[in-house]
Design goal:
Length: about 475
């Protein structure tokens, strides 16, 4: 028996490869199928099952493409109706894979169809659980994504409590927990940076598995402090339920080099968004006017999903050399399949063609300290929890997550100093504001991590009991 966790940092997502006697199961695969196909070719194995723990909201799974290419059966748990061929497992139904068995444990709560897969080894011993978004390390899945007219988030949280108590917690402490996500995912609040643990340790350390916890306490704690889900979540869940364009077609259409003239013509004809995925320093120094920055060097796909509201938006790319395929791939992982090409030879070719470039002022924390006075307008684009923990006395909370809704509160004739925690999010915010006509902007390099070393007055949250 072989188990491999295939972890993708940008999405904080874990897919799984399980093999026994030449038969393979893939759990929650990524959009691109090549890594799985190469692996089974190398191992001379066959993919028999593709298990989906639920209709994912934060990424587009590769299950449909992978099944079409391999003939494998897509398996969901109860309540999962799809527009493509799939098998709906019954609660406690078992699937043979070589010498091992995978049992479907229906664990609703995160969503109604959420299912945990229990791996039983060659000797009949419970070995591991693949928990999807039902149980994370340090947390559980948010129960507010599958709300319907007759089902509230409180109802779902109650279901999650029962699923954990009745299906997962009775398992032995030495059972290994393989979750779908780790730290950085918006599918939970306090996910651990670790990606594998034992169930016994989670019973000791995960607040949601406290033995003395009542259902009412669980519901209250799980729902406390949940940020609103990013706008793309419901759209990705629908793609996972109904199907999507093949990844090969998306890549063929999007990974196309374009001359400056062709690039500009497509941008005008198609109303394409110019998305610059270089580093923040490169973007701030010079960029194509009205382009938006979201760099590949950060949480690229989740921020694209949070900020670009139309999955069908035509996109043109400014990429570092050799990174076009990666950019198209990572966009497709969150359902943005309408990339139309990238600028060949980057900004150098644009400038050589005599075309205009723009820039955004960027200063160090020390330079900011020298310019600082009580009248400056300072936008802190970190998340509300980061702001509440510590911020500049004159800083205003302006979370990047909500910039599309809140930017009309700003004055286009005013100068704004923008910072985040380290510099990535502030560059995104500045690019969006600049593209919308806010031209007097100053980005602060290094963000609050650098600013906190200055003498600029700050406010720190103090615990009432301290």
């Amino acid at each position: 028996m072989k188990i491999e966790q295939i972890y993708t940092g940008c999405l904080a997502q874990g897919a799984y490869y399980i093999e026994s006697k030449g038969e393979v199961a893939i759990i929650d695969p990524l959009r691109e199928t090549a890594p799985y196909l190469k692996r089974i070719e190398k191992e001379n194995a066959t993919i028999k099952y593709i298990f989906e723990t639920h209709f994912h909201a934060d990424f587009v799974s590769g299950h449909v493409d992978l099944a079409e290419k391999t003939g494998a059966t897509i398996v969901y748990g109860p309540n999962a109706k799809t527009s493509y061929n799939s098998y709906q497992a019954k609660d406690n139904e078992e699937f043979k894979l070589g010498d091992v068995t995978i049992k479907a444990l229906h664990t609703p709560g995160h969503t109604l169809e959420s299912t945990t897969y229990l791996l039983i080894d060659e000797n009949g011993k419970n070995h591991a659980i693949f928990t999807g978004d039902t149980l994370f390390l340090g947390d559980v899945g948010r129960p507010d994504l599958a709300i319907k007219q007759d089902i509230t988030k409180e109802d779902l949280a109650g279901m999650l409590f029962e699923s954990l108590r009745n299906k997962i917690m009775p398992l032995a402490d030495d059972v290994i927990v393989y979750p779908a996500h780790g730290a950085g995912s918006a599918c939970g609040k306090n996910l651990s940076k670790e990606t594998v643990d034992t169930l016994g340790n989670q019973k000791k350390t995960n607040y949601a598995l406290r033995a003395d916890m009542t259902k009412a306490e669980f519901v209250e704690e799980v729902l406390d402090g949940i940020m609103p889900p990013p706008q793309y979540f419901s759209k990705n869940a629908m793609l996972n339920k109904e199907g999507y364009s093949t990844f090969d077609d998306v890549l063929e259409k999007g990974d196309v080099p374009l001359s400056p003239e062709k690039f500009e013509a497509i941008a005008n004809q198609e109303g394409a968004l110019v998305l610059d995925v270089r580093t923040q320093d490169e973007f701030l120094k010079e960029h194509i006017p009205n382009s938006i920055f979201i760099g590949l060097n950060g949480s690229f796909a989740p921020w694209v999903g949070a900020l670009i509201t139309d999955l069908q938006q035509p996109i043109l790319l400014i990429v570092p050399e050799g990174k076009s395929k990666e950019a198209v791939t990572r966009l497709s992982r969150v359902g943005y399949d309408n990339t139309l090409g990238y600028l060949e030879n980057g900004l150098d070719s644009w400038k050589k063609a005599g075309k205009e470039v723009a820039s955004i002022d960027s200063i160090t924390a020390e330079e900011f300290e020298q310019q600082y006075n009580d009248t400056l307008a300072i936008l802190d684009v970190r998340k509300p929890g980061e702001f509440e923990a510590e911020h500049l006395e004159k800083g205003v909370s302006f979370p990047l997550d909500f910039i599309n809704e809140q930017m009309t509160d700003l004055n286009k004739n005013k100068k704004y100093f923008i910072h985040c925690a380290g510099g990535y999010r502030s560059a995104i915010a500045a690019s969006i504001l600049k593209a919308r006509g806010y031209n007097d902007l100053v980005d602060i390099k290094g963000g609050y991590g650098a600013i906190k070393n200055t003498a600029i007055p700050k406010t720190t949250f103090k615990c009432p009991n301290s």
